[in-house]
Fold this protein.
Amino acid sequence: MKFKIGDTVETIDDAISGVITKISGDMIFVEDAHGFDFQFEAQELMLMASGNSLENAVYNTDIEAVKKEKASRKRKSAPTVKPKERHAPKFEVDLHIHHLTKSSKGMSNYDMLNLQLDTARGQLEFAMRKRIPKIVFIHGVGEGVLRQELETLFGRYNNVKYYDADYKTYGLGATEVRIFQNVAP
């Protein structure tokens, strides 16, 4: 079916309708009711009769063929990931002493701190070997001794930046570490 300037048309795939303002080869320019200009190929359009009622429409193609084509072209929707979650660290290490040992009975504060620091060092080096870019160390608030020792530990590495972890997720008691893999030794 041939279109001409002034015809009222509707797109087959989208809910766009309007009046043809220009025809250039196979490209047809359509202006919608809001004054926006669109460009379509002829096979993407169908001619509308007066009024926008579908019962009055004159189609330039087989309706069943269009329905089959649209059904076959539906994309599978990927699970949506929120922007914040996309960059959220996937690797967390809880350094609370009750997560590291069955019982802290008989351990001095020095022993507990060393166990926590050894665990943090081991997990940080594991993340570096496995090329894990972000890791969160959950240390709790307390008096800040473990936090200060962790900052000293992280400061020994050239390829590491550390900062407070997301407050909404972890509160004040966590530090996020970013590991840069391509830093020369």
